[in-house]
Design a protein that fits this description.
Elements: E1 4-11, E2 15-18, H1 19-26, H2 33-36, E3 40-43, H3 50-58, E4 67-73, H4 84-92, E5 99-103, H5 109-123, E6 130-137, E7 155-162, E8 168-179, E9 185-189, E10 192-195, H6 197-218, E11 230-233, H7 238-252, H8 259-267, H9 274-277, H10 284-295, E12 302-310, E13 314-322, H11 324-331, H12 335-340, E14 343-344, H13 347-357, E15 366-368, H14 375-378, E16 387-394, E17 397-403
Parallel strand pairs: 2-14, 4-5, 4-6, 11-12
Antiparallel strand pairs: 1-7, 1-8, 2-3, 6-7, 8-13, 9-10, 12-13, 15-16, 16-17
Helix pairs in contact: 3-4, 6-7, 7-8
């Protein structure tokens, strides 16, 4: 049975700030800009939250009455009990018979959900069933985050799993996992993130090596340098992925190509979108996959090696096939046009928005979000679909409206 990703879309908000402008505004060392390999970072506006991001990403691919499971993955939960998925289920108009659940494991959770959903479809217990996985998050960073601030993005990636894998045909049973407890990053309160950058870097690289070894234990003759035509990885920032690629090339012997040539051929296409968005958390690897499909010259079937890492930590290396149909199917989402249409913020505008955006997860009994107060920014953004926006809370219940294109 062929099982995998039938449809994929991402939503990365309505605003962005060029990373050089953020470096200058914060007085960061410009010589470190090249190491990030970042051009822009998406910035959530005060009426965008995990629900709006999820719905706006999934709506173009969720018009299917065979969706039997909805899973949201997020580290931006809104409630200790009620899931983000319950709101997404409502505003996507999914069947009442749908299973609805939320999962959490930092930036890895969406891949766990994808694998569980693929196993459900492959089991055949409900022929023709589909599952919708939405990875959705917001960024809670300001000047306290130092060099992590320019790397953090915001938005969501939506993945439809079925037995018609027009985007990615998963290699079922081909995977390697590695997990252990570590405090490399966390969100102890709904207003800020903490991160140990060095610990996170080493955990990411350690898990990558061990996940690949686990994959190779399951797949005969699997070799990092030769088995995969392309690569897409969780991308905290593009420069970290380049370091990870260099490490695995050294460990694998590297084949006949130079490390730089191999990076440009197999990995660089996956970094075009992440370098314009920032870390999309558990949606990051699927943003990288979308970037790869939109930017690689696909001619026939090509095997993609994917790596998903989540702080805390859990990780997985897996693979699947893409082809020309993948490119045609994804092109309809016009992801590049969405990114082009974001409003560009100056540093002062960005800094003025932070007090409101940093409190979007804080529970308030009653709250009003005046979307019209941001008309000056909406007028500079381009979007071709109606978008869901958060209008506040009433007795802790979040309220939403549709913003006409």
């Amino acid at each position: 049975m062929n099982v995998g990703i039938e449809a994929l879309n991402v939503y990365c908000g309505l605003a962005q700030i060029p990373v050089p402008a953020l470096f200058e505004g914060r007085g960061l060392d410009a010589e470190r800009l090249g190491n990030l390999m970042m051009r822009n970072r998406s910035v959530g506006l005060p009426f965008e939250d995990p629900v709006t991001n999820a719905v706006n990403a999934a709506r173009p691919i969720a018009d299917d009455d065979r969706i039997e499971i909805l899973i949201t993955s997020t580290e931006s939960g809104l409630d200790y009990s009620k899931s983000v998925a319950s709101y997404a289920h409502e505003y996507l108009g999914l069947p009442k018979s749908c299973r609805v659940v939320e999962v959490k494991q930092a930036c890895y959770a969406a891949t766990a959900a994808v694998q569980l959903a693929a196993a459900y479809v492959a089991s055949g217990v409900s022929p023709g069933a589909k599952a919708l996985v939405i990875a959705t998050d917001v960024a809670l960073v300001d000047e306290r985050a130092a060099y992590a601030e320019p790397a953090m993005g915001a938005g969501a990636a939506a993945v439809l799993i079925s037995d018609r894998p027009r985007i990615l045909d998963l290699d079922l049973g081909a995977f390697g996992n590695h997990s252990y407890e570590t405090m490399d990053s966390a969100r102890p309160e709904p207003t800020f993130d903490i991160a140990d950058s060095d610990r996170s870097l080493f955990a990411y690289l350690d898990c990558l090596t061990n996940c690949l070894a686990g994959y190779q234990a399951k797949v005969d003759n699997a070799d990092f340098a030769t088995t995969f035509d392309y690569l897409a990885m969780h991308t905290p920032f593009a420069g970290m992925v380049k370091a990870a690629h260099r490490k695995l090339m050294r460990e694998s012997g590297g084949g006949t190509a130079s490390v730089e040539e191999d990076f440009e051929r197999r990995m660089l296409p996956s970094l075009a979108y992440p370098s314009r968005v920032g870390n999309l958390c558990s949606g990051s690897v699927y943003l990288a996959l979308a970037s790869l499909i939109d930017h690689a010259a696909l001619d026939g079937a090509a095997r993609v090696g994917l790596y998903s890492y989540g702080s805390g930590c859990s990780s997985e290396f897996f693979s699947g096939l893409v082809d020309e149909e993948s490119a045609r199917t994804l092109a309809a989402m016009r992801i590049g046009d969405q990114l082009d249409g974001r409003c560009e913020l100056g540093f002062d505008e960005y800094a003025a928005l932070l007090p409101a955006t940093l409190t979007c997860l804080v529970p308030e009994r009653d709250r009003e979000v005046d979307v019209g107060a941001y008309e000056h920014l909406l007028g500079r953004a381009r979007f071709d679909r109606d978008l869901l926006v958060n209008t506040g809370t009433k007795d802790y219940h979040r309220t939403y409206e549709w913003l006409a294109r």
